[in-house]
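ok so I'm stuck.
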Amino acid sequence: MILNNKIAAIVHHSRTMLLISLLLFISFSIISGQKSKEDQLPYDESVKNDAPSFKDRLFYGGNFGLMFGTITDIQVSPIIGYWLLPRVAVAVGPDYRYYKEVDVVATTLYGGKGYVQLVVIQDLNSFIPMGVHTGIFLHGEDELLSLKSSFWKYPLPYTSDRFYVNTVLAGGGISQQIGRRASLNFMVLWPLNDSGYDIYSKPEIRISFSF
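replied:
not stuck anymore, here's the structure
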C-alpha cells in the first residue's frame, strides 16, 4: 500500500463517524430538551450572584474513539480546562492515537494540545424557545504531534525515528447541556497550516464531552 492510501485510511474513520455523531448529538438534544429548566446550567449560571471558586471554574472532558476490525483505530484525548470568564475557557491535554490496518505496520501518534473557546451564544433557547438548551462557540487550537518517520516519510529519506508536526486548527461548534455540569460538544475545525502529511480531515469533525 502506498503512503497516500495509508494517509487516506487513517483519516477515514473520522469521516465515516460523522453521521453516527450527528445522530448521537440529536438524541442527547431531545433528551436534554425534556429536562426542566432547573436541571440546566448555563455557562454563567454560577456567577449571577457570587464569583465561582477556583474548583467551580475547572472542567474536564475530551474526546475518545475506538474501532476494531479490518482497521484498528484507538484515540484518547483527555483535557482539563478552566473558565477564565463566563464566556471564555482554556484547556490543555495529551493526545494519543494507535492505528493498525491489515497488512500494514501499526503506527502511533502522540503529543499535546491547548485550546481556547469563546461562547458566542450561551443558550439558544433564549432566542428560539424550543426547550433545547444549546450553546454556540468558537474554537481555536494548537496541537503538537509526534509521528513515526517510517510510516509517514517512507520511502523518502529520514534522519530520525520520529518527527514533530505542529498544527493550528480553528472553527466552531455547538454545546448541548445534558446535566448541571455535563455537556456534549460537536465541533467542525479546519487546519490553518498545511504540514503536507494530511493528518486531519478537512474539515475535522469532533465529538467531545465535558463535565
